[in-house]
Amino acid sequence: MFKVKIYGAGSIGNHLSNASRSLGWQVDLCDIDAAALERTRTQIYPGRYGKWDEGIRLFESKDAPKGVYDLIFIGTPPDSHVSLALQAVKERPRAILVEKPFCTPDMKDAQDLFDAAKVAGVAVFTGYDHVVGKAAEAVVEVAASGRLGAIETIDVEFREFWGGIFAAHPWLSGPSDSYLGFWKRGGGASGEHSHAANLWQHFAHAVGAGRIIEVQATMNFVTNGAVSYDKLCLLNVKSESGLIGRVVQDVVTNPPRKWARIQGQDGYAEWQCGFKPGVDAVLEGGAKGQIGENLFSKTRPDDFVMELRHIETALSTDPTKSGLSIERGLDTMLVVAAAHKSARENRTVRIDYSAGYTEAALKGI
Fold first, then answer.
1. β-strand 71-74 against 56-60: which pairing, if any?
2. What is the pLDDT of residues 188-231, one digit of tens each?
3. What is the span of the domain harbouring residue 278?
4. Which helix (H) or strand (E) covers residue 269, if one does?
5. Do 329 and 235 lie in a common domain?
């Protein structure tokens, strides 16, 4: 049984607490705000899961124990992720899970965290949980089967009006009340919906196309005295093998569309999140149309249970081969950082991975 410390008593912290308890793990939930802890105990957790779990211990972050945990989860705003993860490495847990987006687009201290974790022998994972869902695994199986033929392109879209986020956080009146309204803090479409860039990378690895090395971005920003964020983030990308594709992220589409397609010479595989309520789907087809449909029932809490089960398994094998590895999370952040540089400079940006997880890896071309 794992002993877990979770930073952040917001929506993600509650999901991770519930998933951990579902697996029989011990949970200490921490937050810098005592009011957030009380809101968790009296409103968020019982509202979602039926009743408060007295097995969860609550701590203000300054009072939380140190050095006694197997796992430390970081579910705070992204501009605090790296600093908290660096502190967590010093506690020497078996693993750390950092919620997405992994860090801010300036990549501040990301390489330092990567290096520190390696030296300490602490596995670090990132919270792009869609890649370890059953539907994504089924797409990878189709791609590996060879039925699609040579892969021509990959497209991924996470188009979702973020009203649902604020509905899940009723204590926020809008994007200006949190990091969501500020792209430099990890918000906006490029950060909040970076699941799309991550899923593109995941499927590219699955078909042997390698990492994204070129990004050309078109972004639409909302900037006034209260907020500064991108509401549309449109990316054309190229991988190490030369595979070209598209990533679309926005915070305006309603109803949402979370969709991906791997197109091969002989067929296609589509991933659809929320194909219908409580169901994800994988559709497979060829030249004559759709030839297969696999449906996967799930709830939102299931996403986090599967994520934690994946981490538990990865710790017994090789964490670096996980789709949730720190490498995958920081690769995604380099794509986000490249998107902002591309939009700002109006040119394609190349990612030089040999330069590390820093802004120095981004080269305008």
1. unpaired
2. 999 999 999 999 999 999 999 999 999 999 999 999 989 999 99
3. 130-364
4. strand 268-276
5. yes
